[in-house]
Design brief:
Length: 338
Amino acid sequence: MPANLTPEYLHAEKRFKAAQTGSEKLDALEEMLATIPKHKGTEKMQADIKRRMAKVRGELQHKGGPARGAAVPHIEKQGAGQVVLIGAPNTGKSLLVRKLTHATPEVAEYPFTTRLPCPGMMPFEDIQIQLVDLPPVHPQSLESWLPQVIRYADAALLVVDLGAPDLLDEIETTVGQLEKSRILLRHQPLLDRPAGLPAGTATPAGCIALPTLLVANKRDMPGAGENASALEELYRGRFPMISVSADSGEGLEDLKRAIFTRLDILRVYTKAPGKKADYTAPYVLKRGATVVTLAERVHKDLAQSFRYARVWGHGKFEGQMVQRDYALVDRDVIELHC
């Protein structure tokens, strides 16, 4: 299977080859891992990148290299996707992670409480989604490793405080600070482009376009409703938005659904002929995946040997026969026939 490497990956690979220091190499390798297409044809390449990342980290620690290189936290991806929480200080990111997962990040009234990433698993129906609480994205106190961690994620929650007097400035500061690190927060269905560029402009080489959900927190505070309406109107078409209250729990169930949607994934269940479907552990695939993609996940050789599939799902008659290029739908039940 061809690798079909993206321009972003090739640009990161070029940066790696030109890197002079361990920290520069690690930065380029993490970008390579984030931008490489995830399919069977690149599995060995992904493994090789991870081995090189581990080697560079080890060398930096052994040599007592720059703090940036030696102290870059690595959060192993778990569950159906990794979603990072970003934003200005005191927007309620840590409390959201506490309420949505079993993680226990420190929560306090003073800014810059969070200094290291804190992951937790959020249950959503029959899957788990990893949320990662992060230090604030702020020009006065931006952790040097933070852009690397954000770049590696599958999606982001841009968390804002509806009661903040400089709310709009905080949003634009966060977006602008990440653009300096070649991370572009975007509305998933739109063309990838940084703020200010005309429609149709492609993502600049070396940049990461990260699907982003604008989370307007503290909606239970006085005046928050008007601020939320104005914010939604202002950012319509740029970011999808949802208003919640981490403190009272208002809107958190809707937020879970919105996070699932931002990840652009689907769940597929399998069954053997004559048997009941296994609903305990769905296969999680990117939206647009076909029956062939599922077959590759079930077993690496099955994609070549199976002849057709039967599907049970919404809008189909039970056991409808479909071909190899059938595009899967969330909650489809698939029976593969060799």
